[in-house]
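Cont'd.
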Amino acid sequence: MGSTIAEKILGAHAGGAAAKAGEVIVAGVDFAMVHDARAANALKMIGKLDSQSLPFVGKTAFVLDHYSPPPNAEAANTHSAMREFADRHGAVLYDIGDGICHQVLPEGGHLTCGDLVVGTDTHSTTYGAFNAFGTGVEGTDVSAVMMTGKLWFRVPETIRVELSGELQPGVWAKDLTLHMLGRLGAEGANYRVIEYCGSAVAAMAIDDRMTLSNHAAELGAKAALLEADAKTIAWLKAHGAREPKPVKADADAVYAGRIDIDVSQLPPQVARRHNIDDVVGVPEVKGQKINIALIGTCTNGRLDDIRQAAAILRGKRIARGVRLVITPASRQIYLAAAREGLIEALTLAGASVEAAGCGTCVNITGHLITADGEVVISSANRNFRGRLGNAKSEIWIGSAATVAASALQGCIADPREVMGGAWRPPAEKAVA
Amino acid sequence: MITTISGHARVLGAGINTDVNCSSKYLPGRDNAYIAQRAFEQVVPGYAARFGQGDIIVAGKNFGINSSREQAVHIMRMMGAAAIVAPSFGRQFFRNAINNGLPVIECDIAGIADGDVLEIDLAAGRVSVAARGIVRSVPPLPAAIQSLLAAGGLIPFLQQHPDWK
Ligand code: SF4
């Protein structure tokens, strides 16, 4: 009986052969992350350990991304406690403006294929795009990792999702995940790991693969794992990761379920107001008026998202009365977008560009509070009522392409029908 | 080591989000004691007032779904909860409960009513309500989890076993 990627990675980290779904193991962790929204709790837990030595602290990153910049003194005080802790104990520190945790960890070379990574955030599933088991935990867990390098895990079952065919231009991993949310429902994969495979995954650029793994959190997935290929390995090496040792599932691995989707006919998708699993094709809601358009977050604030938006908006103006805000997911992405002239093109088109961070994902910084009755179209991952500070406004969710096309027209628009909407990422260079 | 727990069942419905019903996420600035007196009020009025030391939370499927705050478990312990029995739990909630020394037992709850005296045998893997003739076997908690619970949670466990041996 064969094993899934998750069973192999967890088993190897518990010092043995592949683990089996359902088992509880204590496994060595390769890297851990604490962000500012959970740091106060984590620091309290570490305080209780009254341990002078935290031997694994160097494999932990403290990331100041949610309250970036801090909206009040309490958040600012948490930030200074995080900086002070990182200095005193030698944790890795990513400060305000460096970017969102799920972007800076891979960019910083902190993880590689086959790794076991935990973070105090649900979207820690993102690292699965690099064939690393990434999962969300709480402050107590990260404290244990800093002290012992280990953590307990219940080995999850896996659902294998095969994405065959080829995505149409203007259709992205975002649309695929929204489609799956419509089919399975939010939390439809609770406790389970999703293994994504198939020709459509192989064709995706790394940025899009990160969306696929990241957004699996809305499906309730404990991790969302992809196999590694030449693109993965080239990307990891270019970012200074340790030697990748890809982990594949066995042909006779046991799965809790299998889903096959031919993606070729899939139109761009949107989640309608308030519910991430209330999903329809863009053609069905085209013309819905919008007031605010947001591109950013750990789901869709990457370079290809910004390139796609610029491909649509370059040389044009967004619709009168619409606000477009772009928040790059990291400083590196911001810099690359500036060097490629994307920031200039988008600014000329009427966008405001914010410093890298969680930005307008949630009403945390106070940067984006909606008015009564306003309609937002966002590339974020969550749209529950009141997420942007006003329960009388509504958030719809779509790809960066759909958001940019909608900003241009002032209503939800199909990117396949606007100039530049069929833009495709350049083929990633396979670095030797 | 705790092997058996017995207490009165206090019943809740399915799909309870503990961030919403048992944390300060939407009550900024309120302390745990304040929330402990009002926990789950929105879903079962009077729940916290009836809840006594040593009572057992009995809930429908996906208890703690979509929640991630450890604070919810701290509050349940403050309320006096001895254990939680539910057919399934939210993933992060399940971790948080064990890390904070609160036993979580995955078990069918059909036929269990509020106020029933529930017996849980953690080592043998059994949940029973003698008065109703209910005896259900559940997978026994793995040894690694039993030792965390016995210590009172992950932090006290590590204070006793700094190298996780
Ligand atoms: S961008 Fe949004 S979803 Fe992602 S880590 Fe930040 S707040 Fe969470």
